[in-house]
Amino acid sequence: MTPDNPWLQSAQQLQQSAIRQWTQMLQASPTCAAPLPHLALPGGAGMAELFAKITGHQVKIDPSRLLGIQQAYVRELAELWNQGLQVSPPKDRRFASEAWASSPTAAFSAAAYLLNARTLMAMADAVDADPKTRARLHFAVQQWIDASAPSNFMAFNAEAQKKALDTHGESISRGIQNLLHDMQQGHVSMTDESAFEVGKNVATTEGQVVFENELFQLIQYKPLTAKVHERPFLLVPPCINKFYILDLQPDNSLIRYAVEQGMRTFVVSWRNPDASCAQKTWDNYIEDAVIKAISVTQDITGAADINALGFCVGGTMLGTALAVLAARGEHPVHSATFLTTFLDFSDTGVLDVFIDEAFVRFREMQFANGGLLPGRDLATTFCFLRPNDLVWNYVVGNYLKGETPPPFDLLYWNSDSTNLPGLYYAWYLRNTYLENRLCQPGAATVCGQKVDLSTLDMPVYIYGSREDHIVPIAGAYATTQHMPGPKRFVMGASGHIAGVINPASKGKRSHWIGRDNHFPADVNDWIASATEHPGSWWTDWSDWLKARAGKLIPAPKSYGNRRHKPIEPAPGRYVKAKA
Questions:
Q1: Average pLDDT of the segment spanning 53-77
Q2: Considering 109, 126, 153, which residue would you say is the last residue of a domain?
Q3: Among the listed ranges 29-33, 352-356, 512-516, 558-562, which one has the minimum average pLDDT value?
Q4: Mean pLDDT, residues 468-486 taken together
Q5: Closest C-alpha among 559, 283, 538, 244 to residue 409
Q6: Distance (Å, rounded) from C-alpha 563 to C-alpha 14?
Q7: Are 84 and 228 part of one and the same domain?
Q8: Dihedral sign computed on CA atoms, order 104, 110, 116, 119
Q9: Average pLDDT, stretch 311-326?
């Protein structure tokens, strides 16, 4: 899950080699008497050698497909060459400005780049290899293609050049200042980070920290209604990010929305691990954090059981904790909600390209004696899953054009990275992504108990985002195949974050609901029979949750209880600690 994966390092080291290969290919003029023989070496044996270095073993390219790719390349290059200075800029947002259209040279470079990119990807697709090898090759090639776009370089970016002329060089000066600033802070700025402060204009829902230990703080939120539902509600966010993705601004806060629905709301705020947490394990996070948070919530409210929600890795930990408790004969959670959560890791999408036995062993050896995985490593990895949107877009804007990205709360949160204990991370890699043990009854042992999801017969609400690249919709849906109790699956539009943080008041996007008790093995069969509904899934979920939240009672006037007294105002100090 991090960019220091050995095969990915090899791919990055081959960038210059790939450029040389393409330079040789571009030297094949379409007017040449024998273009195909000239292309044969770099297009065939040369590319096979390059791909072998990326994948780590020899690969073969289907000769007939290769010939077709070469012929198509020569034909399209001839057409492009014949158009000369009349080339229109391609329909690609990177080259959409008028500056590209008004510069024949820039338009030609953009069109040639896209032709080269299509041809290289076609060659990667023509490799005869197993699906995982092809996926890795496709990922590595796409990384190179995105990095080598002419828009990423001042020498070729017509829009940046025009801006430099129009501003008499001021944009270049600002770009250098932006670069120096980002080098100092250690990451590319995606937003104006000076515009936000946790607890001041993000994470502002009123509440108090009512419990803390070395792993987390538990926040209890102030009721916003005269009466609340009797059964309390606990949210478990992912510990690889900070909890306030669920509480950005008042109008897009899922936490505030839950409070407004009359839920007695509690949230886990994870500590940003430092050296004192270097020995913490997956078991520690399950026993001393998730299970402890459930227990404290019960203690404060006096409730026999609670409703709980897990988001992303928080959902994976919640499901694990519930299975551990069930193995002990304990059932403190009345209903569970899983948002973009893996419990079955059969289909992990693009993240699968990073995981194999060698990589997991490397991580296990690296963290055999403890230690921390730096938060910036994970953040960088997730950004390079969508590099044009989350890397090169800002490189061009910040450095080539000298622009300051506008304030955006979600991107501020995205840049606020967190560390992970290495032992926790290594266990997670092997037992989930590599060996998929959590969904196999008895295959994983956590806190001394065999994990068996089939023992979790409480009602569950399962949500997946249609365009999620972190937890693909099939991965989220797979939970339906392991939970034996009453369940509801809902699919929302958009991706991992925007699909979840879709306020009901905005009326944006859509969600899909299937037939009752209809959960075929293939998510595509479910989608085919589902009905689209306009707007956010939040209202459907809140109606579902209210039906399981118990009767309405007067809202409590104070926080905590005798054993768990208020410690400090929300959002607490844990969430403010930087990686």
A1: 82
A2: 153
A3: 29-33
A4: 97
A5: 244
A6: 60
A7: no
A8: negative
A9: 98
How many domains does the chain divide into? 2
pTM of the model: 0.88
Tokens found for residue 498: 């925007």
Residue 193 CB contacts under 8 Å (≥ 6 apart), including other chains: 412, 415
- Two structure tokens written together for 78: 């001839």
**Structural tokens at position 343:** 């419990």
Asked if the peptide bond before residue 571 counts as cis, ω within 30 degrees of 0, the response is yes
pLDDT of residue 4: 47
- Cα Rg for the chain, rounded, in angstroms? 26
Over range 24-45, report the average pLDDT.
35
Please give the positions annotated as active site. 312
Positive or negative CA dihedral for 548, 550, 551, 554?
Answer: negative
* Structure token pair of residue 272: 């940003």
* Full domain range(s) for residue 140: 6-153
Question: CA distances (Å), 366 to each of 29, 240, 356, 426, in order?
Answer: 50, 19, 15, 9
**Cβ–Cβ < 8 Å for 444, 307:** no
144 and 260, same domain (yes or no):
no
Residue ranges in 56-192 assigned as alpha helix (H): 63-83, 98-101, 104-125, 131-147, 158-166, 170-185
Predicted local distance difference test score (pLDDT) of residue 19 = 39
Structure tokens at 458: 């409480």
Count other Cβ atoms within 10 Å, centred on residue 263: 27
Tokens 């897990």 map to which residue?
310
CB 523 within 8 A of CB 480: no
Residue 415: CA count within 13 A, CB half-sphere: 23
Assess contact for 408 and 338: CB atoms under 8 A.
no
The larger pLDDT score, comparing residue 23 to residue 255, is at 255
Rounded (10°) CA dihedral 62, 68, 69, 71: 140
DSSP letter at 291?
A: I
Q: Residue with structure tokens 């890397």?
A: 391
The CATH number given to whatever domain includes residue 307 is: 3.40.50.1820
pLDDT at 60: 80
pLDDT at residue 9, as a whole number: 45
What are residue 532's DSSP bridge partners? Answer: 512
Quick check: 8 pLDDT over 70?
Answer: no
pLDDT at 15: 37
d(CA 257, CA 96) in angstroms, rounded, equals: 39
Looking at the domain assignment, is residue 181 inside a domain? no
Strand partners, 446: 449
Find tokens 């203690």 and name the residue: 299
Asked if residue 299 lies in contact with residue 561, where contact means CB atoms within 8 angstroms, the answer is yes
Smallest CA-to-CA distance from 497 within 190, 214, 83, 131 is with 190
pLDDT above 80 for 389: yes
Residue 537: strand, helix, or coil: coil
Quick one: 467 and 327 in the same domain?
Answer: yes
Domain boundary among 109, 127, 153: 153
* pLDDT band for position 46 (cuts 50, 70, 90): low
Amino acid identity of 161? Q
Q: Which residue, among 49, 29, 48, has the nearest Cα to 38 in the 3D structure?
A: 29
Distances from the Cα of 45 to the Cα of 37, 38, 62, 407, angstroms: 12, 12, 11, 49
Q: What is the pLDDT, as a whole number, of residue 55?
A: 67
The alpha carbon torsion through 505, 199, 187, 2 (nearest 10 deg) reads -70
List of E strands, 485-559: 487-492, 510-513, 531-534, 552-554
